[in-house]
Amino acid sequence: MSKIALRNYLFRIFFFILFVVFLSACEDVVRVDLAPSRPQLVVDAFIANQNAPQTIRLTSTTPYFNTATPLVQGAEVVVENLTQNRRFIFTPTGQNGEYRWQPIGNERLGNIGDNFRLIVSYQGITYTATSPLNRTTTVDSITYEFRERANIGNDKEGYYAQFYGSDLPGQDDFYWIRAYKNGKPITKPTLINYAFNAVRGGAGAGADGFVFIPPIRNRITDSQDPYQVGDEVRVEIWSINRATYLFLEQAENQINNSGLFARPLENTRTNIISPPNAPLPALGWFCVSEKSTFTEKIQAKRR
């Protein structure tokens, strides 16, 4: 072996050993001691103006490394229709921190244009929030097409659906679009779906009355679990207001905030009002929505 070849060989051995040592160093366990933080009440109060049971869920925050979510029992939960001067009592179900209102007869929470207030009383503290009831639009149709497994990417083989509908003309409207597969909500963080008129962001101001555009209309399929023949697709369009739209936008950004160019974390907005110096401050959101629903069953025919 020549001197040059021997030198290159030794260099390769040296860098290989250095690389192995570097990888071994990366296996050290880093323990992070986080200072305990004050617990906060978490209010999940998205309810629909429908003749059907409505549920509000109360939990509390927990230390970062804890896996169990503490449930809040023993609270009093009331929703008031301020426009009609009516009260709706949400009683505890005894499960998952849930409080439920059961309508009597054809009872509903109110009418479009009514204003509502949430009142949660817990451990001697009263929390409040307000919400209007805005109009919503409807789904005209759901279409789908069969796609074979892609050679590039991780999309699975199956049927990919999209819905068609239009924003209601005449004013700015905000919507939360929720999709279900066989009755189970599609909750993938990358599929959080909302719209300002028929689009997203600032462009919504110029999209009054437009047809919903992609990716809004096709964000009802999970590419890792697409629909198959016999599956049921359900799309719901919930009316929301501008503040709720901004809450969903921030929540989406925070949940999907990762990678090399991740932004610093920020406190998520809330419309739950806590009393000054409350020992258990509150987070979460209250929204009363009008809701429309459209269902389609996947058939073998390819569209």
3D structure, described in words:
The structure is a single chain. The protein is mainly β and 303 residues long. The chain folds into 2 domains: 41-132, Immunoglobulin-like (Sandwich), CATH 2.60.40; 139-268 and 291-297. The chain is 12% helix and 34% strand. It has an 8-stranded mixed beta sheet with strand order 7-6-3-4-5-2-1-14, with no helix packed on it. Strands 10, 11, 12, 13 and 15 form a 5-stranded antiparallel beta sheet that branches. The chain has a two-stranded antiparallel ribbon with strand order 8-9. The longest helix has 23 residues, at 3-25. It is globular. The termini are far apart.
Across the major sheet, the strand order is 7-6-3-4-5-2-1-14
Taken together, the total number of domains comes to 2
Main beta sheet: strand number and arrangement? 8 strands, mixed
Overall 3D shape = globular
Task: Summarize it.
By secondary structure, the protein is mostly beta strands.
Which labels suit this protein?
single chain; 303 residues; mainly beta; Immunoglobulin-like; 5-stranded antiparallel beta sheet; 2 helices; 12% helix; 34% strand; globular
Secondary structure: elements and pairs:
Layout: H1 3-25, E1 41-48, E2 54-60, E3 76-81, E4 86-92, E5 98-101, E6 115-122, E7 125-132, E8 139-147, E9 158-165, E10 174-181, E11 184-185, E12 193-196, E13 232-240, H2 242-255, E14 282-289, E15 291-297
Parallel strand pairs: 1-14
Antiparallel strand pairs: 1-2, 2-5, 3-4, 3-6, 4-5, 6-7, 8-9, 10-11, 10-12, 10-13, 13-15
